Fold this sequence. Notes:
The chain is mainly β. The protein has three helices and 25 strands. It has one domain: Beta-galactosidase, Chain A, domain 5 (Distorted Sandwich), CATH 2.70.98. The chain has helices spanning 58-65, 257-264, 270-275, and strands at residues 2-3, 70-75, 78-84, 90-95, 100-106, 112-114, 118-122, 128-132, 134-141, 148-149, 155-161, 166-174, 180-189, 192-201, 207-218, 225-228, 234-237, 286-287, 292-294, 299-304, 309-314, 319-326, 330-335, 348-362, 367-375.
Amino acid sequence: MTMALSSLFFSTRFIPTPFVTSTRNIPSSPRTCASCIPHKRDFPLPAVASVPYQPINFDYLQEEFSGHGVTFEGVEDSCIAKMELKNGSIVTMMLPSGLITSYKAPMWHGGKLELLHTNVSEGEYGDAIIQGGVSLNFNFQTDDGEFSWSPTNWVLHKIQGNANESIQVELTNRTSDDKIGLKYIVTLEKDALNSEVEISNKKSLPVQMTGSILSHLTVSSPEATYALGLERSNYCSKPLFESEFMLSPPDGQEEGFGKIVEQLFPQWGTKDQNNGSEGSQSEEMDEEIDNYKQLSEKLSHVYTDVPRNFTVIDRGRRNSVSVGRTGFDEMYLFSPGSRVEIYSKYSYICVGQAAILKPIILSPEDVWRGGQYIHNPNLDA
């Protein structure tokens, strides 16, 4: 079941954690935004009485953090943060997951265009499942196998900027022993959406990081979409890690992402998908020969030696975006292929700034920074 994003922005799959550490008294009952609850059918909420958590209080967030061009809406136990510039650029983000569900940007024709692709569906137990958008998908582990951690729930730390120039929202996450700390900094500028991470390692051992910043860019159809600037880059056909946010069209019946990967790439088992680096160094590399690559064929490529910026052109919507990165050495590109129906829920391509073939190593006391930039060139003229 698919629903319009405008009618539902929340997912009950995320177990919320406290978002503020202030000593102020926080009311215990969150407010529900009726406009964000689906009109056609309400998704029943799972029983959570046995799960210890504190509900997110969006009234407190509104009082403490609004005033920089950011507003909050509470939906059950989740929260929507909306960043809006006066030039018309708008970004919405889910808390505590940190999933960016929408980026509406001003266009050359005077209107606004949605640049991200997000799908809302009903889960097995009637919960709402959100896939797509911009998400963080990281795993940290040590060589001895004694430590493994994937950050999920994010805490709102601070907001800077203003609605005239740019807005910056900073989220934080850390392990229970405070040894691994992350900052997730989302910046909305007049012509760009920037997603940056800063990671610190206070452990006595090196830590390996694998994963990506994963972005689903909406297009009219992969048939009309081209990647410009990848010529002479090396790549191998290898899928991204499994991610609850990855949106992938099924072959025939509705199946999970892991089953689809097995069908597309039978030579890779689940172990390789989860470990990323396991066995990946021996994959045969090819060289991209097309500088104006049409994305009509189904593909799942990890690129190395790729330019720091490349352009995605959608001839169907007469639109283009520039995608750039810092810190990461690899770029992931996924296309569901032209067999999908035009303007369907699978009309998108997926771009990830990644560490898949080669993990990023954080030595003790190291701080690493990386990010992705989605630039809207329609305001340059």
